Amino acid sequence: MAQVQISLDAELVVEVMVLSGVNSPQDAIEVVVRDYIARGHRTEARTDLTDQRLREAAAEPQEPQG
């Protein structure tokens, strides 16, 4: 896997290390990024199910009103 080198504010990284309980700055940032990606996938899965249900409901024939 390719690696990218970035610079971050030290206080930000230390706070991430404390919150994530990880001792390595690189590991702490990796945990945060992986969590962010996983959360995005979970959100997509939930919204996709909702969208699918709405499409199915819209496709059902409507009873005549009147």
Shape: rod-shaped
- How far the N terminus sits from the C terminus, by CA atoms, comes to 63 Å
Report the count of strand segments. Answer: 0
**Strand fraction:** under 5%
Count of discrete alpha- or pi-helical segments spanning 4 or more residues: 2
Report mean pLDDT, rounded to a whole number.
85
Alpha carbon gyration radius:
22 Å
Identify low-pLDDT runs: none
Strand-and-helix sequence, N→C? HH
Q: How many strands, what sense, and barrel or not for the largest sheet?
A: none
Secondary-structure class:
mainly alpha
- Which percent bin holds the helix content? 55-70%
In short:
The protein contains two helices and no strands. With 66 residues, it is mainly alpha-helical. The termini are far apart.
Tell me about this structure.
By secondary structure, this protein is mainly alpha-helical. It has two helices and no strands. The mean pLDDT is 85.
Secondary-structure map:
Elements: H1 10-20, H2 25-59
Helix pairs in contact: 1-2
